[in-house]
Each structure stands twice: as structure tokens, then as C-alpha cells.
Task: inverse folding
């Protein structure tokens, strides 16, 4: 089983090293991790961003599953590129897994970044008058429930690890879920 | 042609009214707009968020195209639910359109919200040491280039309108693009 390794990990100073660690964990579970930085892109080229897009899309199309790192990224929610990729893989009917190293509730995190009040009707509202999604979920409901219905429930630790960008415990739990799925699929293809 | 109307519009105080205005614009162009709040959901039910998810997914599956409102939402980038939906529709091979009422560049907006410095190598880096995507694009490259390749270029005004949440000029430009596509598809199906 090939797994697309999505996440803002690509923006870390040691982005290549963390991708290597993730790929090694996949190998240990009998799986193949596909990491965006494995694509060779000339970042100095005028069309570098388009080359990155094409590389990532081809990798997603080649993969059977996605493990998305939905750890909040520069704000209360997940990285936009990762969210896009989770949606894309759900749309393609692939097996969708994700983890977040921050187990807190989305609405609580919003109140840490933005002025939020409670309306007379009891709804959370931000400074521009826009409602804050308040279902007690760890992030936007479209991401959380696509995992529930098209893969497995978001994996989170009981409490955030000391290093949210390098702790791969929850990532490895996702890899184990993917390995279980790969075994059960191979058994169902081979009934005797 | 049925168009899924994605966006943080659903979080506005007048969310139903703006959906009605969008649907009316679609009708004027000979198209049908599908708006998430057209689904009936009991918000007091324990599984309300799952019901919303199922309703939105069924609407997307029924639609031929998406028009996503990518106007920055509570931070420098687009709303996560909308980004997920754009990815989902791209994955399903649907026609992907989007607009943003903020024509500025993503990297510039990040510097308005977060402390950003330039590294010795010339890269933009945030306070946690994570790189800031800096290709001169209006948002994350996965969204921008999926539009280029699977629909039409992101529609933005020359300058932000006075009311970024209620001005539908760029939305209507997307509807016109969808109507052109519907006509050209119907002509190609009907060659005589």
C-alpha cells in the first residue's frame, strides 16, 4: 500500500529529514510512504509552484491512502494545502487517515487567536460577526467527518507532545491503521 | 449545470439571504446553485455536524461544478471547510471555479498576522521557524493551481470591495465562466 504523506512538515527547517523518518516508519509497517519533497523541483524556475502542484497531484493519484498531519498551523486550524489534499483524496475514494498533535477543541483555539463573543442566542461569533463552528470537534467538520466515514477517526494524543512538529507517535498510529487495512484488503482479495 | 456554492458565507449573520442571492444569480445565467444551507439539519441534534457533512457531500456529488469563495477567513488564508470542498470536487473530476474578494498576495497577508523574518538564504520564515509559501500567489499553491488546471484561474477584483462578504461581482464572474462552459459542453454534445 502506497501512502501520500501530507502535512505542513514540508515547511519545517528539517523538512527532508522528517519526511525520511516518516517513510522509514512506513517501511517498518510494510508500507510505502510518498513524501512531496521526494519530487525534484527547481525552486528557482518561474513555474516552480506549478511543478510542485503537478508533482503532488501525481503522487496522490499514485497513492492508495493519505495520512494528513492536521496539527494546527499558524492559527487555529490545519494547513490549507494539507486540507485541500485530504479533500482531493476523499474525492478520489482513497483511504483517508489523519492525526493532529494538538488534542484541543477548534472553538477553544479560535478564542486564543481572535476576539470571540457569545450572541444572545448562545452562538460563538468573531469580531467580524462570523459564526465560529462550535460542535466540540478538533477542527472543521468537513475534515473530521470525512475521516470518520472514509477512513478512521482523527488520531490525537491525550495531551500535546513537547515537540508538536517532530513527535511522530500519532503519525505511527495512523501508519498502523493503514497496515491493518492493507492486510484486511489483501485477505479479502485472497479468500483461501 | 448544477453548481455547489462553497464558502464561509454560511457563517455570516445573513447566511440564508446571501445564499439566496447567489442562487438567483445562477438562475439568471441558466444554472442551478446548490447551497449548503438548503439542506435541512436539526442543529440541536447530537449528530448535527455529521448530518451537515452528509448533506454537503451529497450536494457535491450531485453537482457538476464548484464555485468556492476563497476570500481570507479569520486569518491570512481561505476557510478550511471550503478548501476541503474544493479538493473534494477536484478529486471527483468536477469543474473547479473560485473567487477571492481580497486580491493581495498570500505571503504579504501572513506578515500582517504573524511575525515573519527573512532568513540568510532569503526565505520567509515565521516565529516557529516554519517557511512561508512565497510564490507571489493569492493563496496556497494547491488551491491556486487546481483552479488553473481543472477549471479557471482564481477570480479576484482589482481592489477589495468595500464589503468583502457581500459583494458578489467576482462571484458572478465565476457564474458567467460556468455558463460558458455549460454552453460549450452542450454544443459539443450536440454537434449539428
Result:
Amino acid at each position: 500500500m502506497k501512502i501520500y504523506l501530507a502535512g505542513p512538515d514540508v515547511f519545517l527547517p528539517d523538512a527532508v529529514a522528517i519526511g525520511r523518518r516518516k517513510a522509514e516508519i512506513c517501511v517498518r509497517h510494510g508500507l510505502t510512504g510518498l513524501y512531496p519533497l521526494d519530487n525534484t523541483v527547481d525552486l528557482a524556475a518561474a513555474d516552480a509552484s506549478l511543478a510542485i502542484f503537478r508533482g503532488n497531484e501525481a503522487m496522490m493519484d499514485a497513492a492508495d491512502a493519505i495520512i494528513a498531519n492536521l496539527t494546527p498551523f499558524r492559527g487555529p486550524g490545519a494547513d490549507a494545502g494539507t486540507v485541500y489534499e485530504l479533500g482531493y483524496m476523499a474525492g478520489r475514494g482513497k483511504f483517508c487517515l489523519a492525526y493532529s498533535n494538538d488534542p484541543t477543541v477548534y472553538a477553544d483555539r479560535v478564542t486564543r487567536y481572535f476576539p470571540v463573543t457569545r450572541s444572545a442566542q448562545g452562538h460563538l461569533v468573531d469580531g467580524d460577526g462570523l459564526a465560529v463552528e462550535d460542535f466540540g470537534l478538533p477542527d472543521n467538520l468537513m475534515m473530521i467527518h470525512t475521516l470518520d466515514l472514509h477512513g478512521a477517526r482523527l488520531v490525537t494524543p491525550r495531551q500535546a507532545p513537547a515537540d508538536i512538529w517532530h513527535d511522530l507517535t500519532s503519525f505511527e498510529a495512523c501508519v498502523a491503521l493503514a497496515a491493518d487495512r492493507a492486510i484486511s484488503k489483501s485477505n479479502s482479495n485472497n479468500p483461501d
Notes: Chain B touches chain A through 56 residues (CB under 8 Å). The mean pLDDT of chain B is 95. The longest strand of chain B covers residues 2-6.
